[in-house]
Amino acid sequence: MKEGRIQECIDYIRFSMDIEGASLSEELETVLREILEEDRTVGSVIEDFRKRENLVSVPVDGADVMSNYPETRCLVNTFGIKDKTRLRYVEHFFVAVRTAEMFLSPIEMPFTFDGLKAVHEKLFSDIYPSAGMIRTKEASKRKDFCLPDRIQSFSHEIFSRLESQDYLKKASDVDELANDLAFYMGEIEALHPFRDGNGRAMRFFINRLVNEAGFMFSWAQADSDRMLEASIAAIDGDYQGLVDVLEEILWVRE
Known about the structure:
Blueprint: H1 3-19, H2 26-36, H3 42-52, H4 84-104, H5 113-124, H6 151-164, H7 174-191, H8 198-212, E1 215-217, H9 224-235, H10 240-249, E2 250-252
Antiparallel strand pairs: 1-2
Helix pairs in contact: 1-4, 1-9, 2-4, 5-8, 6-7, 7-8, 7-9, 7-10, 9-10
């Protein structure tokens, strides 16, 4: 992978971590560059990390993988981690590494609900048994999200409309793309189909969608605080803030 493309990937991962309240350390950035330059394999990186952090898989048979462990804020996970700070540290590492892997070796990803689920599963399957699974419990975070029993029908409406617009490939310029994209980002945010990791799955999906439409994001110029607030407003149909943010970071791919 060429250096310019590697930097795009690093910028994306840095932004994605920043909007989640984490930061990309120099150590992790070095590891990601080694993966993207194909100096190290993802398998070896993950194996080394598991050994270093003493991560041992525990049985989850019979556990409600959509729930937190009793008296914790930790979702049932592969390693039985019940400390939130440690869980987030481990989660961010695995997600960053799998993101780099998907940039280096793109998965088959149709721009459908199944495609979104495939992204979520790839990002989170190292840490959560619920990766790629539709949530079965109500969810809210400053806003109430789609009820579980309506996720399938709501997703059909969203992705059928996206298909009818030829996956935004007919967008003539940045302004048109930003307006359409703000709608879909708001709708997928409101759908919130997974127990956790919705924003990261949606951003990767949208990033690929934009690339296929002939455009690109300049993630190095994106303001995570503005993006977060605009995304929350878009859940209620107020798209203008998100349109403004997108217009500043979208470019025609050369």
